[in-house]
Amino acid sequence: MEGVFESESEEQTLAFGRRLGSLLVRGDVVGIRGELGAGKSVVVRGICEGLGIRQRTRSPSFTFVNRYGGPVDVYHVDLYRVAETADLATLGWEDAVYSDAVTLIEWAEKLGALMPQASIRIDIDVTGEESRRIRLSSPGKNHEDIVRKVLCDRG
Asked: Domain with 66 in it: what CATH number?
């Protein structure tokens, strides 16, 4: 299932993330793609808030993986500095993806075929200074309800 959310501001992008986060459960993996400055970290912050994470979230660009404790733990993986797939072997990202935490992966396209099939995908396109087109999808039926609720039940 796939759908599009049109965001006109950072606050709407954050609210999108909060809504998604409120629906995620242990073991869910979310891959987030978009150019530099598209709002991937804003979506991550919203997801974490939706999951009840109270600590400040930061992109782990230099550490590659941050862990946030909360009602459901969150692993925040940032693959921006990964140059090639071979570099992934030493980062420990598999421990995050195959844990009972929620795993959020910025620059998920760098995983290629290593990205778990049963994951949620977010693609963010910049459409204006603050506006974004956010495509939310899940390749299988595992997360159809989540995609539907985030995109359709926004009341």
From this structure: 3.40.50.300
* CA–CA gap between residue 30 and residue 77 (Å, rounded): 10
Give the range of the structural domain holding residue 31, as residue numbers without chain letter: 2-152
**How many domains are there within the chain?**
1
Q: Please, what is the end-to-end C-alpha distance for the chain in angstroms? A: 20
Q: Are 95 and 103 in contact (CB under 8 A)?
A: no
Q: CA-CA distance, 151 to 4, in Å (whole number)?
A: 7
Residue 155 above 70 pLDDT? no
Structure tokens that stand for 137 in this block: 């999808």
The predicted model scores a pTM of 0.90
Give, in order, the Cα–Cα distances in Å from 150 to each of 40, 61, 96, 140: 17, 28, 24, 16
Q: Which residues in the chain belong to E strands, given as ranges? A: 2-7, 29-34, 65-68, 74-78, 102-106, 120-126, 132-137
